[in-house]
Amino acid sequence: MSRLGRVGLAAVLLASVFVTARLADPIGTSACSCMVSGPADFDKLAGQPGTVVFIGTVQSIDQRAGDQFGHARGVLLVQWVYKGPIPSARMPVVSGGGGDCTMALDAGQRMITAATLEDGEITPHLCSPYADPTTPEGQQLIQAATKAFGAGAAPPGAEDSTTPDDVTPDLRGGDPVLFAIVVATPIIAIVLILAVVGMFRRREDRKEAP
After folding, report:
1. Nearest-CA neighbor of 117 among 94, 148, 145, 144?
2. Cα(38)–Cα(135) distance, integer angstroms
3. Which residues 6+ apart lie within 8 Å of 202 measured at CB?
4. Which helix (H) or strand (E) holds 52?
5. 83-136, pLDDT tens digit by residue?
6. Residue 172: per-residue pLDDT
7. pLDDT score at 183
8. Among 93, 104, 94, which residue's Cα sits nearest to residue 126?
9. Before 92, cis peptide (omega within 30)?
């Protein structure tokens, strides 16, 4: 393969890695520096007061309700609690600026995570175990949280019919769009790579032909 072909292939590979990374990490980057926690780290949180572990969805974020540190306020709908106390299904939530390791949040963002509960507000952190509960990573965190804290329960004010299966569907029975994206991304990347390789091979063959 020519130098131009190698450059094109590298560009396609980098683009596919970037797309996959953005799908896996919708939160974005931050100036915060920490070692990202994994599922096993739930065990370390058992004796920490003020730390809650839950499944929830960000209902709204009001950027006007911010402060000098870049924090905004909103409403978090807590659907399942593994470690509390979380007094209500609707809780104030803090969306961070990132530099202090707080997490920037968007309306509709779904999570299983560990967070700080202080002064009646929940503050998720970038360094805590975190995943979308509808992904395989989220299912792994759910298993880890259940092992560390027990089966959990719906918070006060949640619908009586709420169960872990209601709020954490796996990809087979969950969001079909998310499932399609997850499945299609590596396939598209492979097709693009093969197309680029084939194109440059044809060019090289034409150059070598008498």
Report:
1. 94
2. 15
3. none
4. strand 51-62
5. 999 999 999 999 987 678 888 999 999 999 999 999 999 999 988 899 999 999
6. 35
7. 56
8. 104
9. no
Angle subtended at Cα 28 by Cα 123 and Cα 17, rounded to the nearest 5 degrees: 145
pLDDT of residue 92: 96
Instruction: State the CB neighbour count (10 A cutoff) for residue 109.
Output: 21
State which amino acid sits at residue 63. Q
What's the N-to-C CA distance of the chain in angstroms? 19
Length of the chain, in residues: 210
Q: Each residue of 129-178: pLDDT tens digit?
A: 999 999 999 999 999 999 999 999 999 998 754 555 555 544 333 444 44
Virtual torsion, Cα 53, 57, 58, 60, nearest 10 deg: -140
State residue 153 phi and psi, 5-degree precision: -160, 160
Residues 67-73: what's their mean pLDDT? 74
Helix (H) or strand (E) holding 106: none
Question: Can you tell me the distance from the alpha carbon of 122 to that of 151, in angstroms, rounded to the nearest whole number?
Answer: 21
Query: How many Cβ atoms from other residues are within 10 Å of residue 82's Cβ?
Result: 26
What span, in angstroms and rounded, lies between the C-alpha atoms of 143 and 104?
Answer: 25
Q: Distance between CA 8 and CA 16 in Å, rounded?
A: 13
Q: Which residue has the higher pLDDT, 38 or 51?
A: 51
User: What is the identity of the amino acid at 49?
Assistant: P
Local structure of 18: helix, strand or coil: helix
Q: From CA 132, how far away is CA 112, in angstroms rounded?
A: 6
